[in-house]
């Protein structure tokens, strides 16, 4: 089973001199429709606990994610940024991960979080964030950080719930694609609708072969 998240890595970063840690995770990278979204969560020194049941968003039920969402928002400052399907077609997915993250970080900054002084804990092995920023941040990448670092799990939850809610709302406009259930990923009903009906403005046209 995947490891449960802890604050061990975060505390190591604080012990090494970090004054603020921002966990970052993305959702929707592999979808055929809808935006890619990036969640960010800012953690201050001295925090020793986190919401019970917190996990990487992929490892908890939709009902549990929705329940955790307000708990995470009360626990630490969060924000979500997005890049649209059109931007993904124009710029590519990696650049749009950075674009969405930059937008989320701007929201944190506007809420009073000292983003420029933070150490970023980024899920994955590749720093796709700094190429999108005019002022570089201290970035630590960690594979499966969304599973074993609570601040990144929290970022994952807020991004996933926000994106799912958007895709459900878009499903009301385009119910043929089944977005309420498949959230824009390549499920059979979605792919069949693309073949028979065509694309919407929310589809990543460059991804549809």
From TrEMBL:
Residues 19-209 form the RNase H type-2 domain. It comes from the Bacteria. Its main location: cytoplasm. It catalyses: Endonucleolytic cleavage to 5'-phosphomonoester. One of its GO terms (cellular component) is ribonuclease H2 complex. GO terms for molecular function: metal ion binding; RNA binding; RNA-DNA hybrid ribonuclease activity. Belongs to the RNase HII family. Endonuclease that specifically degrades the RNA of RNA-DNA hybrids. This is Ribonuclease. It comes from Aurantimicrobium photophilum.
